[in-house]
Design brief:
alpha+beta, 8 helices, elongated, disordered C terminus
């Protein structure tokens, strides 16, 4: 296979035919096409562009190649992931343009540009913007965006809201550091009880939300009850004992995010007013008395679903 000049391995220049077989390429292509059969030796058989890609990007590149081979010069950059050779899992930007050969062939010129470090940095920044730093759950902006998407896309399920009871008293009597440990403890209880597909968020000082997609109300109620029972206990605070509990409110997901959130909030308010929304610590007195709210025996905790 003939090679094309390229100053760096981060920019790989190549030429393909209309079927995607690489006819010429700069040296960096070998690092993308290495496999168990060819080891680290120069390529004797031209690789096919599609064989280098992660499966989810093959159809996109096939469409781009067809357009470029047909003479479309308006192609921009797309970002794809390599699934071959020593660079497997790495992100590249790809641009395909007609080769404009003298003989009117349908060959295509391509450039692969390494953008992996930028993608990783963007992912980290995105996670930082969307994650609550204390509990590592998604934060309020992320929750609002997810609820908006779920309601406007017509998905069915339930929204669960939770609030740790008497949280101001916990902060006042035991200090903010211990209050933070209570918050982290509640987030860990959510992770243990809730199912893999449930979306967990911290949306306020002592408020949490769970999106239960494709879940009936009675099932969401049962999961919420399990969270309350695992979390409930007694906290010693000097000469007094503070009950550790959380109130829950469940509402079916509607077609409006504000309405869905309002109905869940009203269910939680009603639970606080009637006492039906909380499992109080004294109901489990002696069964679970944590120094921190995450000290429940894990053998008693079963992941739902």
């Amino acid at each position: 296979m003939c090679t094309l000049a390229s100053d760096t391995f981060s920019d790989i220049v190549f030429k393909t035919d209309a079927e995607g077989f690489v006819l010429q390429a700069s040296q960096g292509i070998e690092y993308l096409a290495l496999n168990e059969s060819n080891g680290r030796f120069p390529l004797l058989i031209p690789p096919r562009l599609f064989d280098l890609l992660a499966p989810e990007h093959v159809s996109l590149v096939q469409a781009e190649l067809a357009l470029a081979a047909a003479g479309n010069t308006e192609r921009g950059w797309i970002e794809i992931r390599i699934d071959s050779g020593t660079e497997s899992g790495r992100w590249y930007a790809l641009r395909l343009t007609p080769a404009n050969d003298r003989h009117g062939s349908d060959h295509v010129l391509g450039i692969l540009r390494d953008v992996h470090e930028r993608r990783m940095l963007e992912d980290k920044l995105f996670m930082a913007r969307m994650t609550d730093p204390l509990t590592a759950l998604t934060n309020r902006p992320a929750f609002d965006a997810m609820l908006e998407h779920v309601t406007t896309s017509g998905q069915e399920g339930c929204l669960g809201l939770f609030e740790i009871d008497h949280f101001r008293a916990i902060n006042h009597r035991l200090g903010y550091d211990f209050g933070d440990e209570v918050l982290v403890g509640f987030s860990q209880v959510l992770r243990v009880v809730m199912r893999t597909g449930d979306t967990l968020s911290r949306i306020g000082d002592a408020q949490f939300a769970v999106l239960f997609l494709e879940t009936e109300t009675h099932h969401a109620d049962e999961l919420a009850r399990q969270v309350q029972e695992v979390f409930a206990g007694d906290l010693p605070a000097g000469k007094v004992t503070l009950p550790l509990s959380a109130t829950a409110g469940i509402a079916e997901i509607g077609r409006c995010p504000n309405d869905t959130l309002h109905r869940a909030e009203m269910a939680m308010v009603l639970g606080k007013a009637t006492g039906s929304g909380a499992v109080k610590g004294e109901r489990r007195r002696g069964a679970y008395q944590p120094a921190l709210p995450t000290r429940a025996a894990e053998s008693r905790l079963k992941r739902a679903g």
